[in-house]
Amino acid sequence: MAEPLINAALVLAGVVTGYLISSWVESFLHEYVSDALTHRVRKWERYPRLLRSLINTYYSHHTIHHVKTYRKSHDRMFDSAQQEEEVRRLLLERGKHGETIIKGVFGTRLHGWGAVKFTLPSLIPCGLLAIYSSHWFGLGLLTTVLLPPVMSHWVHPHLHQPFLQRRSHAPLWLRWFLGTRYFRWQYINHFLHHRYGGTSNFNLVLGADYFRRKVRKPSLKDARLLAELGAPGFNLECSEV
Fold first, then answer.
1. How far is CA 95 from the centre of its chain?
2. Structural domain boundaries in the chain
3. What is the pLDDT of residues 66-120, one digit of tens each?
4. CB 123: neighbour CB atoms within 10 A?
5. C-alpha pair distances (Å), 113 with each of 34, 101, 110, 215
6. Where are the alpha helices (DSSP H) in 94-151?
7. Residue 161: which region, alpha, beta or left (left: phi > 0; alpha: psi -120 to 50)?
8. Which of 2, 4, 85, 166 is the most buried (most CB within 10 A)?
């Protein structure tokens, strides 16, 4: 009887450990790569072959997802058909990487090799932990270490819809999650991430931002804008009037 309980405890410990690692890695890389400061990106561009992966990640996420799309509205990718065509043309001129961004719905979903790169920084420490620990612990790790790409591919698009419409185009298996309090806080967190130019609130896998002090609290104006998106009633602790 003791052995099943021990195994269950090891799985649970692995789940928690994998979650913490995923959240920390996501928050850190989101800040220092995906939404890196301009002066850092300019240094990368001095070595385009060596640091191509970092440059491409910044371009697809910050340049396209933050700057070229969702310019005026959190829930509308393009302001006009002309703007969409301009961005599409810009990406096609970029070649294979641009085509990958288009297939990823203009940087809204991780697609192809990008998903692998996004997972590797978490897989490495989790893989080492799994090797030198119980296989039950390793099983628990695997259930949460893949959360960042899962959240980015399947959940992230719904964070850019009007809140009350978030379930309308979701597959059946995802609709329950989109109704949870966890998703509601993701929605607020991601709204603030975009509203303030990708300078805070980095997590989709919530948690590490709080420990890293990278969370911006919503102002009263932010709360009003969230209400316009259909997301009221969150007992928001506002940072300013």
1. 25
2. 2-228
3. 999 999 899 999 999 999 999 999 999 999 999 999 999 998 987 666 666 666 6
4. 18
5. 15, 11, 8, 29
6. 96-103, 113-131, 135-145, 147-150
7. beta
8. 166
